[in-house]
Write a structure and sequence with these properties.
This protein has five helices and five strands. It has a single domain, classed as Alpha/beta knot (3-Layer(aba) Sandwich). A five-stranded parallel sheet has the order 2-1-4-3-5. The longest helix has 20 residues. The radius of gyration is 14 Å and the shape is globular. By secondary structure, it is of the alpha/beta class.
């Protein structure tokens, strides 16, 4: 199952981009044997301001995917539960899993209402660059949990 992080805006070349790249590469390498991956990051820019315009830019990349919307009003999951969700989707035959991250104002209702799940990173508000890092790390952590690796400790 392919996994995509589809996010509004570009990270550039800062430390956050480096961390996302590292975790995506690790998850792709470790996930091959599990039928997970490749993991990719798709960054989109909207031509107009606002959530509706951002949704327009995101939607083509969410087509034919199980979509998990990253949203502050979603459910925060423990790492093992997050890994179990990914495994369940894979085992049910999903070919692509896409995590959607909106812009500064969040995701448009069109994406929120059609997503399979809404995922929160806890009750705090996080900058979008850090949300991307945390998501990439959790995807890598999920892969290592499913592989039985030592990375995750309870």
């Amino acid at each position: 199952m392919k996994i995509a992080i589809v996010a509004v805006s570009r990270l550039g070349r800062g430390p956050e981009a480096e961390l996302v790249s590292t975790y995506v590469e690790r998850a792709t390498a470790a996930g091959r044997a599990l039928g997970l991956g490749p993991v990719e990051v798709i960054e989109v820019e909207s031509r107009k301001p606002g959530k509706a315009a951002e949704a327009e830019a995101l939607l083509p990349h969410l087509k034919d995917a199980q979509v998990i919307a990253c949203d502050e009003h979603g459910t925060a999951l423990a790492s093992r539960a997050f890994a179990a969700d990914i495994a369940r989707l894979r085992d049910q035959g999903a070919r692509k899993l896409a995590f959607a991250i909106g812009g500064a104002d969040g995701l448009d209702a069109q994406i929120l209402n059609t997503s399979a799940r809404k995922l929160a990173f806890g009750p705090q508000t996080w900058p979008h660059a850090l949300a991307r890092v945390m998501l990439a790390e959790q995807i890598y952590r999920a892969v290592t949990i499913l592989a039985g690796g030592p990375y995750h400790r309870d």
